[in-house]
Write a structure and sequence with these properties.
Radius of gyration of chain A: 19 Å
Radius of gyration of chain B: 20 Å
Largest interface: A-B, 28 and 20 residues
Membrane topology (chain A): Multi-pass membrane protein
Structural class of chain B: mainly alpha
Organism (chain B): Halorubrum ezzemoulense DSM 17463
Helix content of chain A: 55-70%
Mean pLDDT of chain B: 87
Order of helices and strands of chain A: HHHHHHHH
Number of domains of chain A: 1
Oligomer: heterodimer
Low-confidence stretches of chain B: none
Structural class of chain A: mainly alpha
Subcellular location (chain A): Cell membrane
Number of helices of chain B: 2
Protein name (chain B): Cox cluster protein
Keywords (chain B): Membrane, Transmembrane, Transmembrane helix
Low-confidence stretches of chain A: none
Distance between the termini of chain A: 22 Å
Order of helices and strands of chain B: HEEH
Strand content of chain B: 5-15%
Shape of chain A: globular
Shape of chain B: elongated
Helix content of chain B: 55-70%
Chain lengths: 174, 94
């Protein structure tokens, strides 16, 4: 419960994060978000292996964005990483979210992808709030709520001696 | 009784939705093209491959899961949880 006398818009706030309905929904969102990326990655692997040549050319076309020259530079110089990395990391991010293992680390990777999709696709015909941004916020939600702790393997990983001795690892798990 | 209904609503709704999205998605993905529930067409617009599982079936499972949650919400409207039950205090994720 939080109560801020300085802010009349914030009264008593109760958020049943550990309540069964909240955990159920957080875990559900995590799994569906994971499936979304797993499907995107594994179908690329099935079709073209680890040679996703569209990736570098997509980034080369990201001119005039808020990211400046970074994506274009990456497209020109990091094709060796992007071509195998897109299908591989999409698949791994998806699997991690489905299993709830290394969830925050994986979701951070998802944020990187979604930033590039949101800015690169530039589908702003109906405003900047579009499905790419919503996908980006889904990954952010997974990170903020430590979604891997609910019906996920991170709940077990965080009980290991290694994590207890290095509690900062929880920023990569959870 | 209340716990049973709550658990049943959660299990059934999540089960239906995840079946439609993930389980049937796995079947669709690993049985060959198309990998998504949409027909593949050639440049002439002719359909060259149809999805194994109709999108009506997959979306139907997801909608059924949402209906379960809606029915649960309606049930809770007429049979609310006790005031002091089911709500706990905020725990910050760290």
């Amino acid at each position: 419960m939080s109560y801020q006398t300085s802010n009349p818009l914030v009264g008593e706030t109760e958020f049943a994060l550990e309540g069964p309905w909240a955990t159920y929904w957080i875990a559900f969102l995590r799994v569906v978000t994971g499936w979304w990326f797993f499907h995107a990655g594994v179908t690329k692997i099935i079709e073209n292996g680890f040679a996703f040549t569209y990736g570098p050319s997509y980034m080369k076309g990201m001119t005039g964005t808020a990211l400046g020259g970074i994506p274009v530079w990456m497209g020109n110089n990091l094709a060796w990483l992007i071509e195998p990395g897109v299908p591989l990391f999409e698949t791994l991010i998806g699997l991690a979210l489905i299993a709830g293992a290394f969830t925050r680390l994986a979701a951070f990777g998802g944020v990187i992808f979604m930033v590039l999709f949101w800015v690169g696709n530039a589908g702003f015909g109906h405003g900047v709030v579009n499905s790419d941004l919503m996908g980006l916020f889904l990954f952010m939600t997974v990170i903020v709520l430590a979604a891997g702790r609910y019906y996920g393997l991170d709940a077990l990983l965080e009980q290991t001696a290694l994590v207890k001795q290095n509690p900062k690892l929880r920023y990569l798990l959870g | 009784m209340t716990d049973t209904i709550d658990k049943a609503a959660r299990a059934l709704s999540a089960g239906l939705m995840l079946f439609g999205i993930v389980v049937l998605g796995l079947v669709e993905t690993f049985t060959g093209k198309p990998f998504a529930p949409a027909p593949i067409t050639n440049e002439a617009g002719e359909v060259t491959a149809m999805p194994l599982i109709s999108p009506e079936i997959r979306t139907g499972f997801v909608l059924a899961g949402l209906v379960v949650l809606g029915l649960y919400a309606a049930y809770r409207f007429v049979a609310p949880l006790p005031e002091d039950r089911g709500v706990s205090h905020e725990t910050m994720a760290d």
